[in-house]
UniProtKB/TrEMBL annotation:
Record-listed substrate binding positions: 456
UniProt keyword Manganese, yes or no: yes
Cytoplasm is among the record's keywords: no
Source organism (scientific name): Parazoarcus communis
Topology of the protein relative to the lipid bilayer: Multi-pass membrane protein
Protein name per UniProt: Sulfatase
Signal peptide residue numbers: none
Localization (cell): Cell membrane
Phylogenetic classification of the source organism: Bacteria, Pseudomonadati, Pseudomonadota, Betaproteobacteria, Rhodocyclales
Amino acid sequence: MSWLHSRRIRFLFAGVTLFFILFAALRLGFLIASADHAALAGESAGVILQTISIGLRFDLRLALLIMLPVAFAASLPRVNLVRSRFTRALTGLYLALATLLVLLVYVLDFGHYSYLGQRLSATVFRFAGNADISTRMLWESYPVVWISLGWLALTAAFVSLLFRAARVTLDRPRRQPIRPLPAIAGIVLVAALGLLGMLGRVDNINPENPVPLRWSDAFFSGNAAVGALGLNPVTFIYDTHRIPPEKYDLAELRRHYDTVAHYLSVDSPDPATLSMQRTVKPHVHRLPVAQAPNVVFIMLESLGASRSGLFGNPLDPTPELDALAREGWLFRNLHVPVTGTAKTVWASITGIPDAARSESATRNPFISSQHSVINALKGYEKIYAVGGSAGWANMNALVLGSIDKVRLYEEGHWRAPNDDVWGISDLNLFRETDAILREQAKKGPFFAYIQTAGNHRPFTIPEDNDGFVASSIPDAEAQKAGFQNTAQFNAVRLLDHNVGRFIEMARASGYYDNTIFVLFGDHNGRISTLPFMPPAFELLGLESTHVHAMIHAPKLIQPRLVDEAASLVDLMPTVAGMLGLEYGTATMGRDLQYPAPEGERAVPVILREGAFPVIGAVTRKHLVRMNADGSKASMHDLAAEAPLKDVSASHPEEFARLSRLARGLHESARFMMYDNVVGK
């Protein structure tokens, strides 16, 4: 065992140990400070410990990978770590840079999860396309200077430990030469242990095909928050980045074509061409109006249903919106297909869920011009208004390429000064847009899309806020009602206040009575504790897709509660049905006033995006979810006290129906993004 006295092996062991301890400590920090404790509380201690065990094995793998170049430097015959000062210095520089970069990934991962509820993956690279806006948002939302100082201090402290370990192990006097046979045996054993550590498994290993520990192993419980606890951000970025881009699975699309064609009421189904085309004709539910109504879409930033008093929020933060909903159609179970502002803009304009795997569909220049039902509004002036830059996520390409003759108003067009990274305040956005609409109403009907941003970090409350008074309740009280803190609670209240002011402006400007207002959240913000909502929304991930949505036009429609499941992509077709429009479409949106061909209405959702998505089909009562390849499918009762329980065996026919829809609609959405391109 003389090889145990090897100075180089001792240094390698010390380096791996120090990195492993660092990553384990960061995992503990994530568990204490960032993990979704509400979702973790529903799991047993055994599940939590098993997930942490998986995470620690990922940490060991990363520690071994970082030290692999050092092992190479140690094995050099004449210029190794013991004999060469140059090799020693170069290795020290490498370890310092590796530590700096790895800790930066952890810093970004903590912030990413705190903000979006998802661990860092290769999808983060999409923000590099908007580096200026992303940087400003971070600067205005977080204490960047203190975080940077902490990152550098931790890096310096850890690198000093590595250098001390090098001095203790490499500079110690050599005892005696190690004989060749023990040296070879030691190298083989160390290499075998290293390979076993990177494999991440000690049991159930097939020698002919040793499958390493994979990211999916962390999601064995089906609880996304538990799975997040088992990931390592550095290795997960690698796992997600190395997946080759794929448009869609043609074989899977053909297999589910009949199901989807029936769901969409395709005119002439043809499995050979995979046509989704259909013609929607005027229906008896068209509004009996002499003058064409205006249409105003208002995208409510980060306004999930749980932020509303109508859905039981105890702080009643949205009295203005709730009052509007009571006078119109309130959608009790409307879901966005997937979270994210750019993805919501895409779905609401195109009628197609954004099922892109690596980055939002708006960032793909080959599909940015889409056919849209909005263009069936013949004779309408079309206006898109956003307080900041429409270049964020290349949304301007989608807007300008998909809406005929649209007038895009964005940062630089407004008289009001910018308030933060997202441009002018929502109140000023409403004021200046109202002035545009007031003049347009004198000329003819209009379609307007107003994209708000105030309910978003950095949660700015402008000085000019038309009498809004911020609440000073403690953060703890706000957190009990599902908010991250009081700042987010006030941001929701301010959004509600501003919408109320806009409706007052519309009344004063004379176009309110003849306008259909469609208001919807683009997704929900990061969840916390929601005791007033059914447990399924937290535990199954539906809280992020379930949004506050309504159609408000009290002079044109009667109040109505819509309890059936509905999707964001259905809103524009439903309005088109109210207006009695005839149009052709090959997308997924459907008029909600038509009976659903599938029986109980079901809508597709993407519960986890990225290279390895989790997809689902949700109804008023159930959710079927699965991996995008159809594996690990389960069915859940949305009203149950224990919604994580798989009830597929109790409802085999419904499970089979929703499984086909989930798989078919997801693959069809991927196909439609390319099939619906203008000029195709």
